[in-house]
Amino acid sequence: MALGSRIGTGWRLAGRSAGVLRRNPRLAVFPLTSGVATAVFVATAFGAAGVTGAFDSDGGVVAVVVGLYVGTAFLVAFCNAALTWAARETFRGQSPSVGAAFRAASRHLPSLFAWAIVSAVVGITLRAIEESSEIGGAMVTALVSLGWTALTYFVVPVVVFEDAGPRSMFEESGRLLRETWGETVGAELGLGVVTFLLALPGVVLTIGMLVAFPDGNGVLLALAVGGGLTLVGFVVGTALEGVAKTALYRYAREESVADGFDESLFDGVGAESR
Fold first, then answer.
1. I need a labelling partner for 228 at 20 to 30 A (CA). Which of 47, 60, 125, 178 fits?
2. How far is the C-alpha of 91 from the C-alpha of 189, rounded, in Å?
3. The predicted structure's pLDDT at residue 240
4. Mean of the pLDDT values across residues 211-224?
5. CA 129, CA 230: separation in Å to the nearest integer?
């Protein structure tokens, strides 16, 4: 299937995912919680590092950086795990509460924390490679980052629904990626465009307000209104991606079409294994 068709599939997946989100708006709570929790964690970590003097030594700086990478990766993974579980329950006609979803995610804390550590190590390594040289490092980092993102695309669903450990989570995610390669690429590209378009009005409004009202109060108003609208766009886009990813996982693993989706969207998914 051509790239244009794959992107079209991603658009249609986004549309079906939007229908699921309308049925259960609580799904948007999880990416919002992820963003807020990450911001609070980063601010708290920097504040604590400043008070304790961690930035005064190289060892302290390294500790802060590693802690930030691991902590933010864990918070994002934990909230995504809750979103994934809630999405599948919604497919089943249920209306899961936010608390129930987080309790379900908490049953996989060891695996999610292991994933966060591995993700942090990879992230720090890629950053070091990128800074090692201007052009070569950036090219290597981009290629490796793309491959890593693809390999780990289904890690969270595999952890949540299969209780996979640190090793098997990567093996199973890679296997599912091979079975859903085209659909996964289409979903990522299509949903990426959708998220961009959802956030674009907020970005444009922010820039426009900053130009029209360059004083202090104008900046605060622009950040509050335009920034808030941008945040809503990213939250909705992230929720749509979580729903679509769960639907792809369910079809590839269970050969079952999620409620609200069309089987034609998954043509070729899992074909290698059936």
1. 47
2. 23
3. 92
4. 80
5. 32
